[in-house]
Amino acid sequence: MRRSGRFRRLLGTAASIAVLAGSLAAFPALSTALGSFLGKAAAASAMLQLPEGGMAYLQNRFQDDLVQDEPISASQPQAEKPIQSAISAQEPSIPAQSQAESQSQSTIVIPQTPESPSIETIAPQNRGTITEKTFTADQSSLYIPLSAGYIKNSTSLSNQQVLSLLAQPMELALEDTDQPQVLIVHTHATESFEPFDRDFCDTSYTWRSTDNTQNVVLLGDIIASQLEQAGIGMIHDTTQHDYPSYNGSYERSADTIRKWLEQYPSIKAVIDVHRDAIESPAGNLIKPVAMIDGEKTAQVMIIAGCDDGTMNMPDWERNLRWAAALQSTAETMYPGLTRPVFFCYRKYNMDLTGGSLLIEFGSHGNTLEETARAAEYMGKAMAQTLLDTLPQ
């Protein structure tokens, strides 16, 4: 467990979420083309391997992409492959239920991407294409502008209803305490990245690793370091909830979150760090990138769940306001860093607090270096957003 001491400083004045006025009332398009989706080769393999949600999950997760024929996005690779294990013979093959006692690091070193090998070294049948894409809002009525950045409204709520919710004050507010107030977890800890910055890939690669210096746990370390430097008490739980079994990952991470909430009622925000998996209908890997300070950086997507009346999420509006505040701060500090917030009918353990978000860093087409840079920027934006909530 990593915890900071008392707040070293109080920064800025409290900031409210600024949203553009005006009515944008419109209902987002809902998918009616699941049959067409199943006809796409990349998605067919995903359905066969999908661990938890079956057909209903598949339809819901990709409904917007089906309507717009955009790249297919998922919180796991389109075909789950065996995990590349980097666990030494001296370590247990099954991680303990909680590996929260991670060592404190004052400095996080962003890894350097090695030089790319030649495509000729990849077997012809395993050669794939990586396409870079910067995700932005289009002119569709799905997108709701914030003071900076956008929300993609994939619910049946009108944009005006969403704007009304965002106009209310954000309930999440830090206290001047040395108790932990942020919890970082990883439901899919073994999600990893492309080993090289290149425009091609080896489709036999797993994009999974149990080495926490190569997967999304490293991103959690980087975010934790930024919060710690800002004097915000936090816990980074490094449990690999998706290893050795991917099935039941969310149930196991929910148990971990409940344990920490019970031990520390001071926790106000829970961040589940993931990486996305995005493919075009043709099966090409899509790599979301932005140039920030002259460096290629993975784009980040915040997911905020909405309750359709059947999901038992009493505080989803609070989660949405927290997502919007973080999005606006991140886009103000680092324009282009984020994809629009994905506001959708998803649960992802967001029923456990009023400050729960799932954040996806890049995709399996990005390198660890690119996503580590994004984690540093997002960690700074998160710290600033939270510090702005401190009482004056």
List the helices and strands and how they pair.
Blueprint: H1 34-38, H2 41-49, H3 54-61, H4 63-68, E1 72-74, E2 127-133, E3 143-145, E4 150-153, H5 159-166, E5 182-185, E6 200-202, H6 216-229, E7 234-236, H7 249-263, E8 269-274, E9 277-279, E10 285-292, E11 295-298, E12 300-305, H8 316-333, E13 341-344, E14 356-361, H9 368-387
Parallel strand pairs: 2-10, 4-13, 5-7, 5-8, 8-14, 12-13
Antiparallel strand pairs: 1-9, 2-6, 3-4, 10-11, 12-14
Helix pairs in contact: 6-9, 8-9
3D architecture notes:
With 392 residues, this protein is α/β, with parallel strands linked by helices. It has a domain at 96-102 and 125-387: Aminopeptidase, CATH 3.40.630.40. The protein is 26% helix and 16% strand. It is built from 9 helices and 14 strands. The protein has helices spanning 34-38, 41-49, 54-61, 63-68, 159-166, 216-229, 249-263, 316-333, 368-387; strands spanning 72-74, 127-133, 143-145, 150-153, 182-185, 200-202, 234-236, 269-274, 277-279, 285-292, 295-298, 300-305, 341-344, 356-361. The strands form 3 sheets. It has an 8-stranded mixed beta sheet with strand order 3-4-13-12-14-8-5-7, sandwiched between helices. It has a 4-stranded mixed beta sheet with strand order 6-2-10-11. Helix 6 (216-229) runs parallel beside helix 9 (368-387) and helix 8 packs across helix 9. It is globular, with a radius of gyration of 20 Å.
